[in-house]
Design brief:
- There is one protein chain.
- By secondary structure, the protein is α+β, with helices and mostly antiparallel strands.
- It has one domain: Aspartate Aminotransferase, domain 1 (Alpha-Beta Complex).
- It has 4 helices and 6 strands, in the order H-E-E-E-E-H-E-E-H-H.
- The protein has a 6-stranded antiparallel β-sheet with strand order 1-2-3-4-6-5.
- A hairpin with an 8-residue loop joins strand 3 and strand 4.
- It is globular, with a radius of gyration of 14 Å.
């Protein structure tokens, strides 16, 4: 997945915003909270996302994936897809969607309603 494809995918998720920060990384937020980051790798695109506790334990052991620099060291369950083989594009998209859901579910019910996240 290229950064352009990553940005198009994240933009299509409900109530997202995009900023470029932290050294030129593509940072995607829902309700002002980060759910995905494109950047922070030297030789190829890298993508960082929030996971459940179980997914974190499974993914951190796979080749091309690691606990996300800075975030995981602070106890947060974030994974970075940074090298081959890593995740294929479809699996990466699934984890980004789940990250969006995890972050959105942590927002107040009022904020979720304002953003159209509740039915």
């Amino acid at each position: 997945m290229t950064y352009d494809e990553f940005n198009q995918f994240c933009e299509a998720l409900i109530s997202t915003t995009h900023v470029v920060q932290w050294g030129g990384s593509h940072v995607w937020k829902v309700g002002g909270k980060v759910f995905a980051i494109g950047g922070w790798a030297d030789d190829r695109p890298a993508y960082t996302f929030k996971t459940s506790d179980l997914s974190f334990e499974i993914l951190k052991e796979q080749d091309g994936l690691r606990p996300a620099p800075y975030l995981a060291s602070r106890g947060f369950k974030w994974i970075q897809n940074y090298a081959l083989p890593g995740l294929n594009d479809e699996d990466l998209k699934t984890y980004i969607i789940r990250s969006h859901e995890l972050v959105a579910s942590g927002l107040s019910k009022k904020k979720q309603r304002e953003l159209g996240l509740l039915n």
